Amino acid sequence: MVAKRYIWLLLALAGVQTLQAQPRSLTLDSCRALALQSNTNLKISQEKLAESESLRKMALSQFFPKATLNGAYLWNQKNIELLSDGQKSRLSNLGTNAVSGIALDYPTWIPAGLQNSITQLLESRIGQPVDAIGAHVVDALEFDLTNVWAGAATVYQPVYMGGKLRALYQAAQAVEALNGLRRDKAQDDLLLSVDEAYWRVVSVRQKMLLAQQYCDLLDTLNRNVELMVEAEVATQADLAKVRVKRNEARMSLTKAQSGLALSQMALLQLCGLDFDGDYDFIEPVVLARCEPLDSIDLTAVFIRRNELQQLHQAGLIAESGVRAARSMLLPNVVAQASYIVSNPNLFNGVQNTFGGMFTVGAVVNFPIAHPGAVHATRAAKHRRAQVQFQLQEAREMITLQVNKLNYELRVANTKLTQAVSNMDEAEENLRLAQDSFAAGLIISSDLLQAQTAWQQAGSELLDARIEVQMDYLYLRQALGIPGTE
């Protein structure tokens, strides 16, 4: 039983190692998906789109009221006194001074005792009350500002800003749409780069396999010629020719292997994968023919092309810039409502308590002389004209590009037809040469030529197939068809 358990454990470990040793399969679609997930530039484009979306929402918020709450506190070393020390002294002793003046003017016939009685009566009935009134006036004219509190809650509502708020919002909308188009363009360019890298890997791997087959043919021919030299039916010169070709083929195989490694590294970098991993690139079915278009609907192309859509959004931004510059020449109206509170307050004299009030009003600004706004409007109009010219030029260049790529695809299909025919002939020629060499009807150099012709025909056929596929991808991109379709 123990032995059986060890056997099952060893088999399980061997199975795990086998699973770990299996290479990761990568198709064209999986490479595209990995590139979309890991590409840094695409993530940056997505963040720019999110940023422009927030800016658009910020521009929209300018249409709505804004509320602010402000508060302040001040500590003051001194109070405010409206009277000088001399004035306060005279005012505080106003009654006493008046009674003293009356006492000095008593007639001589009034007895002194009666004068004192009258003076005391005047001081109690007039002097002291008037002094108290004066002191109260002095206190009323001194303001306690040691601690000052103030606060205000204010609501602003733009009523008419000359159209600048609407222009700002429309420009923000266009910027958001523009960043969305740029994100889509970055995605399409990335997918095209992945397709190019993947098809390059396919091409180089097929050429490596072709070079390996060519080396195998030359190895077989080399062994046959060596036997013929031993049998004295071939010369050392014949053997040297075969070995030179074999060395050239091995060198081509080494170059193909190095090219395949570099091509795979470029593709893995686009996919965000480690170079040290073990990957198996599953070759897609190569389309034999990707037919060119008999007629091109340029109007539909112009609608689909990302670059023209970007220029259209740039035109909307320029138009919004014209309206924003023109708004500096138009009046602005802003409504305002506030509640103000302070301590001390002046709403019922000066009181060291909190008191407040509501205020409602409007602010109107009428520009009279604003030459800078005139020049800014003209500059914005020139910018709008530039975008219109760029749009016109882009349409002309796209027309040329589409027709050129469609023509190149037609030429590539012609090359593919010729390459297929050449490959069929080269395979038939190689078959006949091998049979003739086996029958002793031709010498080794003739078979060597047939093998070389077969290898060249195979290489040209691979190039023609990849060229057709890539020209078809380039034409789709020029037609404005997204890479994800």
Task: Explain this structure.
It is a single chain. The chain has 485 residues and is of the alpha+beta class. The chain has twelve helices and eight strands. It has helices spanning 2-21, 28-38, 40-61, 85-92, 94-104, 112-140, 164-230, 236-271, 298-304, 306-326, 371-438, 444-478, and strands at residues 24-26, 66-75, 80-81, 142-143, 147-160, 279-281, 332-343, 355-365. The strands form three sheets. A four-stranded antiparallel beta sheet has the order 2-5-7-8, with no helix packed on it. A two-stranded parallel ribbon has the order 1-6. A two-stranded antiparallel ribbon has the order 3-4. Helix 7 packs antiparallel against helix 8 (236-271). It is elongated. The protein starts with a helix and ends in a 7-residue tail after the last helix. The model is unreliable at 1-20 (pLDDT under 50).
